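Re: Re: ligand-bound prediction request (bumping)

Still looking for help on this. To restate: I need the protein modeled with glycine bound, output as structure tokens. Inputs repeated here so nobody has to scroll up.
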Amino acid sequence: MESLTVDLSSRSYKINISSGIILSLGAELKTYLKRDRIWIVSDVNILHLYQTDLEKSFLKAGIELNLLELPSGEKTKSFHFFEKTVNWFLETGIERNDLIVAFGGGVIGDLVGFAAATTLRGVEFIQIPTTLLAQVDSSVGGKTGINSQFGKNLIGNFNQPKAVIIDVSTLRTLCDRQLKSGYSEILKYGLLGDIKFFNWLDFNGTDILSRDEALLTKAIKKSCLIKAEFVKQDEREQGKRALLNLGHTFGHALEAVTGYSEQLLHGEGVSIGCMLAFEVSAAMGFTSLEATKRVKSHLRKVGLKSELREISSSLPPTEKIIQEMLKDKKVNNGVVNFIMVKDIGEAFVTDEVDLSVVSNVLDASR
Ligand code: GLY
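Reply:
Sorry for the wait, this slipped through. Here it is.
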């Protein structure tokens, strides 16, 4: 088993990475429990695969399992399912010293982390992420929340989990499209802060996406290490942590105009967004065309989306996409703070990006 720590003084926690742990999850989690009851929230797709294993494992460990099944998909990150989840905790008799488990992808992790923070003013929770995207990004660092009618992730808090348990064997059943979506968040870490990691990914990316479990484990661990360092330095995103949003201002706007639907997965928005960040940076004179070409060639090599024209649905006018960017959480005094790049591995935040340049780059990408 690989292990690392997110170092946040009294709120520090371990990220454990192994393969096949789900089968003995009951025994694994027993050490975290103050009494023999546990509350696990998951989604229909995950439970279709793991419910029997979970039930057997908790029965064997002598733990009463309370299991809530939610629908899968971004629409579950809503007030409606937040209310349903909190009410379920309360009606099944949860107490403050109990433990909640978010067992699923980023939607489940974000929703359940927020519900755990607010139930009885806070019940501890553990993240067991089952998608690559959740394993390398959303389950680590404590960002939790739901979407609002005004945009994605606009309601939430910072609520660090008690532990993150990553089982890479769960990736065996993840479809290729979701795997690629998660890979774009791995790539993001190389692009924003570690050129050596980017070079390693450029060499190994195709094998990682062919599900080589040893390489996947290395890529996940390195991603978590990079993220843990950012979170340690800036837990509540007052500065440096914002760099982790490379490509996300563009990506979120594209997700919004495609209705947070299957038309564009989050990671697909991120890979296109990272490419746009390099293209806008090049057009603004912040980075070289050479760096931009290298990123494009990597995205093409591993089969990730890099251009607006690769989105299957028709997009609204560019102006509308820019309007969506203005709803970003990084807007200050009406001006968008963009994450731009000086080179591969060197990102920075600036409010000096000309929106007409952004508009031209978006037009060229359509
Ligand atoms: N996903 C970016 C962050 O957690 O800060």
